[in-house]
Amino acid sequence: MKPLNTTAIKGKYGLIIRKSYRGTDGAEVMLIQTESKMDEEATIESMTGSP
Predict the structure, then answer these.
(1) Is 46 in contact with 32 (CB distance < 8 Å)?
(2) What is the per-residue pLDDT across 12-48, written as a single tens digit (0 to 9) for each?
(3) Cα–Cα distances in Å, from 29 out to 32, 41, 42?
(4) Helices (H), the chain
(5) Distances (CA, A) of 48 to 21, 29, 41, 45
(6) The pTM is what?
């Protein structure tokens, strides 16, 4: 897999890191890592970008 880009932003619940890769077949994959001290609602909110 070839790394494409990495972004890190300070979100409402802490640091959010996004990293994109491109596979040998051309498909792109994005990995998202957030701080783990969030409840279920906060996790869904951080993933969907809801206020």
Answers:
(1) no
(2) 778 889 999 999 999 999 998 877 677 888 778 877 7
(3) 10, 24, 23
(4) 40-48
(5) 20, 17, 11, 5
(6) 0.59
